[in-house]
Structure prediction request, 256 residues.
Amino acid sequence: MVIPVFDGERLLPEAIESVLAQSLPAAEIVVVDDGSADGSANVAEAFGPPVRVLRRPHRGVAAARNAGVELSAGDLIALQDADDLMKPDRLELQAAALGQASAPALTLGRAEIRGEDDFAPPSWLEWAYANSDRYTPATLIATRSAMQLVGPFDETMRRGSDTDWLLRALEAGVRPVMMEEDVIIRRFHGGNLSYGYEGYRRAMFGILRRRAARQRGGEGLPDDALPATLLFGVPDAGSDPVGFSHGQLPDGRASV
Prediction:
């Protein structure tokens, strides 16, 4: 289990507690403190084993995830955001699903959405529910062989590096095992990287632009291509939702 955190001491304890309460215990919980100015690292260290804490200078969530994956020792690698909660049977359900899959493999589930501190869920969620599926990158669990095949999260991306990684995984032929259950609770509190619409729009545009560049570079798509809209919040580039692209997207349709 890899949990990157940056100035998240208020919500981090509940996130860790939700991992410790799993029906299938996590062998290790790697909390990567991304140069927090608050007490996030101290909060995590207070839990003791199986929580391990890695303190690093601030380099962003993608770099923190990469460091956590490298430090972890398990054959299955689960991601958890520091402000989200896991449903009690998340690890049990997703580990069982991966047990039926051939390596390299990954699994995704769905998420319950919750507003915190009187914050309503972000405005872009309504569009995302109508135009993409609900399999969210925040529920990713992958085999280590899948992580090695696809490579690290793109550390040049401030937002959306998990979605970008998943699109690269699909392009590499890794087929996800999709869970219909809500396996996490996403808590929106106004401070989320993904809360504001403009940040979301820029992240999705950048993700699709990177994908188009890979295609132009000769990285063809598998014959049994899956739609990018399988991933929650990823737009179909051909639909051009109002205000999304602010210009023409670089490829035709966002399918992988």
The chain has eight helices and eight strands. The two ends are 27 Å apart (CA to CA).
